[in-house]
């Protein structure tokens, strides 16, 4: 299967999992360009589950990484799915000039 995306979303990640552990696991499947774990490792927020996004150098790694779905990692079965990359749209200069906060209501 040909993938146009290089990103996978990994859900049901154990709260005790670190980004370094995720990098080690997915690093066996291809070269990682970027990895983000939410909430971050240093977050004081208590969580019941985490989400990780892994961007590979090659789109072929996306298909291979899906084979990790239902693999128990730390204490949870991971769910790995391809994630569509969104290109940032460039706004027209006229729209940017008009954007900004709404004017305050000055009373009628």
From TrEMBL:
GO terms for molecular function: RNA binding. Residues 7-81 form the RRM domain. InterPro entries: Nucleotide-bd_a/b_plait_sf, RBD_domain_sf, RRM_dom. GO terms for cellular component: nucleoplasm. Signal peptide: none annotated. Transmembrane segments: none annotated. Gene3D superfamilies: 3.30.70.330. This is Serine/arginine-rich splicing factor 11-like. The lineage of its organism: Eukaryota, Metazoa, Chordata, Craniata, Vertebrata.
